[in-house]
Amino acid sequence: MITIGGLTENDRAAWENLFAGYNTFYGRTLAPELVDRAWREFARGERMHALGARADGALVGIVHFFTHVSTTSADVCYLQDLFTDAEARGQGVGRALIEAVADWARAQGCVRVYWHTQTSNTTARRLYDQVALDKGFMQYQIPLGS
């Protein structure tokens, strides 16, 4: 059975391992100070939020999200990071985390939850196509340096 809940200090090592797996998937390695900053923000629970999925007491998935204003609607929720341990995939972990974020956002008065993924991420897109609408937008970025 999968349970979803907030992260505790005891989850730090398992969370770091999952977050490292997420970043490795996207070809990046985060500096330790960025990992520490994210953990501090999650602990505060003001700007950035995190939930974890547990199976048999072990942390097997994580999701990071935050709200922001919109010019055309009430606030919206951006699901920034979602990752499930490879051994737990196909067991409903990702779906449960997405549903938990949607429930949280609904309770905050948000009008939608949205996220991005690479078009080549076919495994994740199979799930996303079942739980959300592909609105057909592309993302553009202007890197501003470090």
**By helix and strand content, what is the structural category?**
alpha+beta
Strand order of the largest sheet: 1-2-3-4-5
Structural domains: how many? 1
State the CATH topology: Aminopeptidase
How would you characterize the largest beta sheet? 5 strands, mixed
CATH homologous superfamily assignment: Gcn5-related N-acetyltransferase (GNAT)
Low-confidence stretches: none
The run of helices and strands is: EHHEEEHEH
Query: N-to-C terminal Cα separation, in Å?
Result: 42 Å
Our count of helices gives: 4
Q: Residue share in helices?
A: 25-40%
Number of strands: 5
Q: Which whole number gives the mean pLDDT?
A: 95
CATH architecture: 3-Layer(aba) Sandwich
CATH C-level:
Alpha Beta
Q: Note the overall shape.
A: globular
Radius of gyration: 15 Å
Beta-strand residue fraction: 15-25%
Protein name: Ribosomal protein S18 acetylase RimI
Keywords: Acyltransferase, Ribonucleoprotein, Ribosomal protein, Transferase
Pfam families: Acetyltransf_1
InterPro entries: Acyl_CoA_acyltransferase, Bact_Acetyltransf, GNAT_dom
